[in-house]
Specification:
The complex is a heterodimer of chains A (110) and B (116). Chain A is an all-beta fold and 110 residues long. In chain A, strands 2, 5, 6, 9, 10 and 11 form a 6-stranded mixed beta sheet that branches. Chain A has a 3-stranded antiparallel beta sheet with strand order 3-8-7, with no helix packed on it. In chain B, strands 2, 4, 5, 6, 9, 10 and 11 form a 7-stranded mixed beta sheet that branches. A 4-stranded antiparallel beta sheet of chain B has the order 1-3-8-7, with no helix packed on it. Classes of the chains: A mainly beta (110), B mainly beta (116). At the A-B interface, strand 6 and strand 10 of A face strand 5 and strand 9 of B.
Chain lengths: 110, 116
């Protein structure tokens, strides 16, 4: 079954602390994974894609096929990072579509 | 960057009536558009995928006769909720994917539907 699991509904950290948002996936093919972010009262937007291996706003995410994980990390959280984060998986089975995890709300405290 | 708009941003309708939501790609041609539903404090659930000029592909459990999708042009897709009921109240989000980038998917701001 194709599935994206984000085990934490809410993650609260202090400003300057490291943050890690967990994501695990289940997919039989070669995964295409993404992190999307939704700031308060804004639309969903792409944050990271695993294939680019890039760092955006200080965030990075490494695909670990052995652990079927794609955790999102940032060494020093900022208050403006407070948002809803969704891990997502693109699949081609039965047509292209994106499967979203349940989302993790990150709250960065001053 | 690519922009996707939705209209209206919010709508209130009475039970039994139909309501149409538009999704437009403003500066690119969207060969594929997706319609999602999002319940409060929950994730996005894909309802259907629409390709320009062809019938939409609905996800399991989504009633195609209730949620009519039309993708008449490369820049416009519409979702019509027919004979709306209070349980149809939700946040509906569309996204669009161009013909070029395989990975790029741009989201609209969403439409809040309330059925009274």
């Amino acid at each position: 079954a194709q599935r994206v699991t984000q085990p934490e509904k809410l993650l609260s950290v202090f400003k300057g602390a490291p943050v890690e948002l967990k994501c695990n996936y289940s997919y039989s093919g070669s995964p295409e994974l993404f992190w999307y972010v939704q700031y308060s009262r804004q639309r969903l937007q792409l944050l990271l894609r695993h294939i680019s291996r890039e760092s955006i706003k200080g965030f990075t995410a490494d695909l670990n096929k052995g652990e079927t994980s794609f955790h999102l990390k940032k060494p020093f959280a900022q208050e403006e990072d407070s948002a809803m984060y969704y891990c997502a998986l693109n699949t081609d089975t039965g047509g292209f579509k994106t499967i979203f995890g349940a989302g993790t709300r990150l709250f960065v405290k001053a | 960057g690519a922009v996707v708009s939705q209209h209206p941003s919010w709508v209130i309708c009475k039970s039994g009536t139909s309501v149409k939501i538009e999704c437009r790609s403003l500066d690119f041609q969207a060969t594929t558009m997706f319609w999602y539903r999002q319940f409060p404090k929950q994730s996005l659930m894909l309802m259907a995928t629409s390709n320009e000029g062809s019938k939409a592909t609905y996800e399991q459990g989504v009633e195609k006769d209730k949620f009519l999708i039309n993708h008449a042009s490369l820049t416009l897709s519409t979702l019509t909720v027919t004979s709306a009921h209070p349980e149809d109240s939700s946040f509906y989000i569309c996204s669009a994917r161009g013909s070029g980038g395989r990975y790029e998917q741009y989201f609209g701001p969403g439409t809040r539907l309330t059925v009274t």
